[in-house]
Amino acid sequence: MTTSQLDKMRLELRRGVLVLAVLASLKQPHYGYSLRKQLQDRGIDIDEGTLYPLVRRLAEQGLLDSEWQQAEGRERRYYLLSEQGKELLAQLTDEWLQLNSALGPLLTQDQSGETE
Fold it and tell me: Residues with Cβ < 8 Å from 108, sequence gap 6 or more?
């Protein structure tokens, strides 16, 4: 497999996970840079060109509430989960935990079908 093919597969794998990570991070209010920093601090590297359109899309879908606040001498738009966003996060978390539980044994299974 080429590096290009691997990069495409990684991107595909990460795409859905980023939505879940952003929703989970926005249980507390964040503005764009602080959200990006929190995700990076937890090992989820996301560039601005991906994060900002994703946050705007989630807000347009009614999953996030936002408000402008004065902070450190600047106005910043802070985002926080809406009620609908909280419900979706709970549903996606359950789905993630079920998938992860089912996928774990598959990933650790050797060729004979036994888990390592």
Answer: 115, 116
Check whether 85 has a pLDDT greater than 90: yes
Q: pLDDT tens, 11-70?
A: 888 888 999 999 999 999 999 999 999 999 999 999 999 999 999 999 999 999 999 998
Query: Which residues lie across from 65 on neighbouring strands?
Result: 80
- CA gap 100, 32 in Å, rounded: 28
Task: Please give the Cα distance from 62 to 36 (Å, whole number).
Answer: 21
Give the Cα separation of 44 and 42 in Å (integer).
Answer: 6
